[in-house]
Design goal:
Layout: H1 11-26, H2 31-46, H3 63-72, H4 74-77, H5 81-103
Length: 105
């Protein structure tokens, strides 16, 4: 089986990789890199191809995805509700000011 052959992966694993890949692309990761990372994540979670065979089914480890999600929102996640709220108020005030300024032009 040549390297990069995805035939031993289940449809579910292929779907997972597609979803993960589109998430990376949404973040601005280039297509090829996104695909590489997506399959790396699927492999980390499911331990490689899972096509049929008795005793092939092992539990999935969702830690890689959790880590990705946590890292993605780390800045916001590490701030208290008050800090986020203050930041939102400040942003709203700025947008309001800028809108008012633009109206005069």
């Amino acid at each position: 089986m040549p390297r990069g052959d995805k035939s031993s992966y289940t449809d579910k694993q292929k779907r997972q990789a597609e979803h993960i890949e589109s998430g990376y692309e949404h973040r601005g990761v280039p297509k090829g890199e996104a695909e590489r990372r997506a399959w790396a994540t699927v492999n980390a979670e499911t331990g490689g191809g899972k096509k049929s065979g008795s005793g092939r089914g092992q539990p999935e480890n969702h830690e890689p995805s959790r880590r990705g999600g946590r890292i993605g929102g780390e800045a916001a996640a590490s701030r208290t509700a008050e800090e986020r709220s203050a930041s939102a108020r400040k942003g709203a005030a700025t947008r309001k000011r800028n809108a008012a300024a633009r109206a005069h032009h």
